[in-house]
Design brief:
460 residues; Jelly Rolls; 2 domains; 10-stranded mixed sheet; 5-stranded antiparallel sheet; 36 strands; globular
Length: 460
């Protein structure tokens, strides 16, 4: 991508990978933020669920939120499943209060009064999404990949399923669609609206580590050969899941939250299969090359049951939910599993929250700092920022030419001082209008004091 081709439009530009940054100055630094724990939204305590219920997916379809998951139980002493695995769905209107719909589709224990949508070979790791491909047939508006058994291959393959409504499913075809990989994980796929393709990410063992590979497709049936993700200079670590999706406020950015497995550590004596887990943030602009933050995005925290093997597994998907604080902006809800594998317990899903765009900020102390962007072409009528300051903090924005020289009327001294805590604040200058610079390559210099800058955009 040439410098002049970096477009700043209505999509929010984040600092999650530092790609938009040319220079950090003063005491400015990139700061990783962490989701805040909230309430338990689902207890997997039904007879068809249990302590190994997992591989959760959350999505929104119109005004309805849906949560898909594997219903599963495991007898730790006997070392066997308590019942066959099934695929379940819960629904919500706010992302906070969830209910199991009585679907009447699948019999379990002599009754169809349950929320099961699928049973059989694909139920281990069913991963649905709403297909945004404008060419997708109506009866395939929902799609999913799930692992299937293959004779002679202990790791199986991935089969494809489709649905009109997300409740009644059928196989797209009987034969698997992806066969090269190690599929005992939550393997994900979605329509990439920026590049007009389906992307898929699945487990792949590589040099003794659990790794991630990607495939591409135009029709969801024929896929390219898997390619291992490129982590740059990040050290090798076990990545158990991937949870990759386009970020809903900028689909050019792919965000993932893989569960990082640490197999050589144990914390609790009652852990039946000792190992520890947390989750990390990964970011890509092309689906192949990823920045992986080495520090945990979500730590296990103070709950003992989260220091047990395969806990802290993130659900695939982010939802926008209302804030508990009155008259405050909506926020992101992030869901994570706890209570997994423990005897005499059920798996639970806890909600965590984060401000919109709040994954990574450019932070500066009171003494100040600044960030200079790479050249951008502005496409919009007003510059907006997502930021937070202290009572004495401040944000100012200076617009420069591609060489870094301030443009008359758009200097820091001309900028109307910004302070407060807003997810969508207009930037103004005393006598200049940002519309004068539309279509021209410029740089933005953000000057910060006791402030966090999360994102910016050029709005219509």
């Amino acid at each position: 991508m040439r410098n002049a081709d970096w477009i700043l439009d209505s999509n929010w530009e984040l600092f999650v990978d530092g790609a938009v940054i040319d220079q950090l100055g003063g005491k400015a630094e990139l700061r990783l933020h962490h989701p805040v724990p909230q309430e338990v939204v689902l207890e997997c305590d039904r007879p068809w669920e249990g302590n190994t219920s997992g591989y959760f997916t959350v999505l929104q379809d119109g005004k309805t939120f849906r949560m898909y998951y594997r219903g599963s139980g495991y007898d730790v002493k006997a070392k066997k499943q308590t019942h066959p695995e099934v695929t379940c769905v819960a629904e919500s209107r706010d992302g906070i209060h969830w209910e199991r719909p009585n679907l009447g589709l699948v019999e379990f224990g002599g009754s169809k009064r349950n929320n099961i949508v699928w049973t059989g070979r694909e139920s281990h790791n069913f991963a649905p999404f709403v297909d945004e491909n404008p060419a997708a047939p109506a009866h395939q508006r929902y799609k999913s990949l799930a692992s299937v058994n293959v004779p002679g291959n202990e790791w199986g393959a991935l089969g494809a399923l489709v649905s009109r409504d997300g409740i009644r499913w059928q196989r797209l075809r009987e034969e698997p669609v992806i066969t090269e990989g190690h599929f005992d994980s939550l393997n994900t796929a979605f329509w990439d609206p920026v590049n007009g393709r389906y992307l898929e990410f699945h487990r792949f063992w590589h040099e003794g580590y659990r790794d991630i590979a990607m495939c591409e497709s135009q029709d969801f049936v024929h896929w390219t050969k898997p390619r291992l993700l490129d982590w740059g200079d990040a050290p090798r670590e076990h990545l158990y899941t991937n949870a990759i999706r386009p970020y809903f406020r900028n689909p050019r950015i792919l965000l993932g939250f893989p569960m990082r497995l640490v197999p050589d550590r144990a914390k609790l004596a009652e852990d039946p299969y000792p190992a520890l887990s947390d989750s990390v943030l990964i970011v890509s602009r092309d689906g192949l090359h990823f920045k992986r933050w080495l520090e945990a995005f979500q730590r296990p925290g103070p709950q003992r049951e989260r220091w047990v093997n395969r806990n802290n597994m993130p659900a695939w998907g982010l939802l926008v939910t209302r804030s508990d604080l009155p008259n405050c902006p909506d926020e992101i809800s992030f869901y994570s599993v706890e209570g997994y594998y423990l005897p005499n317990q059920t798996a639970r899903v806890r909600r965590f929250t984060l401000r919109l765009d709040g994954f990574v900020s450019v932070n500066a102390p009171r003494s100040g700092g600044e960030v200079l962007t790479r050249p951008l072409v502005l496409q919009g009528n007003k510059l907006q920022v997502n930021f937070a300051t202290s009572a004495v903090g401040t944000v100012k924005v200076e617009v420069t030419d591609p060489q870094g020289n301030p443009i008359k009327g758009f200097t820091a001294d001309d900028c109307v001082e910004i302070y407060g805590d807003e997810v969508e604040q207009d930037v103004r200058w005393n006598s200049a209008d940002i519309r004068l610079l539309r279509g021209k390559p410029v740089r933005l210099r953000f000057l910060l004091s006791d402030a966090d800058l999360y994102a910016f955009r050029c709005a219509p």
